[in-house]
């Protein structure tokens, strides 16, 4: 049987599924991304139902599978009295592509918002950290620390916290992805839950670039601060 149907029915290999009043043992589960199917060979069907299966459906493959020709051939089939209905695979394909396209647009917006949120959070936290510890930074700079050492002194905490956030985010994101895939997929469509390594590499690269750019900004900002005036200021 198809995987999506097995998920909806709550069964797995070795379980039994009741179909038309008969119990059928599941020996394998196939990956089928659109629609639900149960596969039985002729011998198994005869053993379960006690009668030979009656073929009532035919699979037709067109030499010209374009949408216009498919519609034309489907209409010609429907004109025949012996045919009660025609199911076009192109319809299922268009449905799947439509759902996937909508999800891709939604994911693109979420990624953009996530990047902007990361920039705002890291920028504000760094600014607050610098403002609260300006006298401390002024002291170590007056003591002879170089500009890069002063920057790393204040920015090292941000980098460590970002690395921890990346690790936790990847783990939480993996489990959230699995949950969302199960929640948003329509009843007749199976979404493949596995993702490529690029999906995990992209946020790491994005956060690394943001950290590098903010590091340049912090270094430039600390160079312009009048350390002596900062030491004179009253807390």
Automatic annotation (TrEMBL):
<feature type="transmembrane region" description="Helical">
    <location>
        <begin position="197"/>
        <end position="218"/>
    </location>
</feature>
<keyword id="KW-1133">Transmembrane helix</keyword>
<protein>
    <submittedName>
        <fullName>FtsX-like permease family protein</fullName>
    </submittedName>
</protein>
<keyword id="KW-0812">Transmembrane</keyword>
<dbReference type="GO" id="GO:0005886">
    <property type="term" value="C:plasma membrane"/>
</dbReference>
<feature type="transmembrane region" description="Helical">
    <location>
        <begin position="158"/>
        <end position="177"/>
    </location>
</feature>
<dbReference type="InterPro" id="IPR038766">
    <property type="entry name" value="Membrane_comp_ABC_pdt"/>
</dbReference>
<keyword id="KW-0472">Membrane</keyword>
<dbReference type="Pfam" id="PF02687">
    <property type="entry name" value="FtsX"/>
</dbReference>
<feature type="transmembrane region" description="Helical">
    <location>
        <begin position="106"/>
        <end position="125"/>
    </location>
</feature>
<dbReference type="InterPro" id="IPR003838">
    <property type="entry name" value="ABC3_permease_C"/>
</dbReference>
<keyword id="KW-1003">Cell membrane</keyword>
<feature type="domain" description="ABC3 transporter permease C-terminal">
    <location>
        <begin position="109"/>
        <end position="217"/>
    </location>
</feature>
């Amino acid at each position: 049987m198809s995987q999506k149907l097995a998920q909806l029915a709550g069964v797995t290999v070795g379980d039994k599924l009741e179909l038309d009043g008969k119990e059928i043992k599941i020996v394998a589960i196939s990956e089928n991304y659109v629609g639900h199917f149960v596969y039985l060979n002729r011998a198994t069907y005869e053993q379960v139902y006690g009668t030979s299966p009656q073929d009532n459906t035919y699979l037709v493959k067109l030499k010209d599978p374009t949408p216009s020709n498919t519609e034309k051939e489907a209409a010609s089939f429907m004109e025949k009295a012996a045919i009660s209905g025609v199911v076009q695979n192109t319809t299922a394909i268009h449905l799947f592509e439509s759902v996937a396209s909508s999800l891709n647009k939604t994911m693109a917006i979420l990624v953009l918002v996530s990047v902007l949120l990361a920039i705002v959070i890291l920028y504000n936290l760094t600014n607050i950290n610098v403002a609260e510890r300006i006298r401390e930074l002024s002291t170590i700079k007056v003591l002879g620390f170089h500009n890069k050492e002063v920057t790393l002194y204040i920015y090292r905490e941000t980098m460590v916290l970002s690395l921890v956030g990346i690790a936790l985010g990847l783990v939480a994101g993996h489990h959230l992805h699995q949950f969302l895939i199960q929640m948003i997929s329509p009843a007749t469509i199976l979404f493949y839950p596995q993702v490529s390594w690029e999906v995990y590499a992209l946020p790491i690269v994005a956060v690394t670039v943001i950290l590098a750019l903010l590091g340049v900004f912090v270094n430039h900002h600390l160079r312009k601060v009048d350390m002596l005036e900062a030491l004179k200021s009253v807390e």
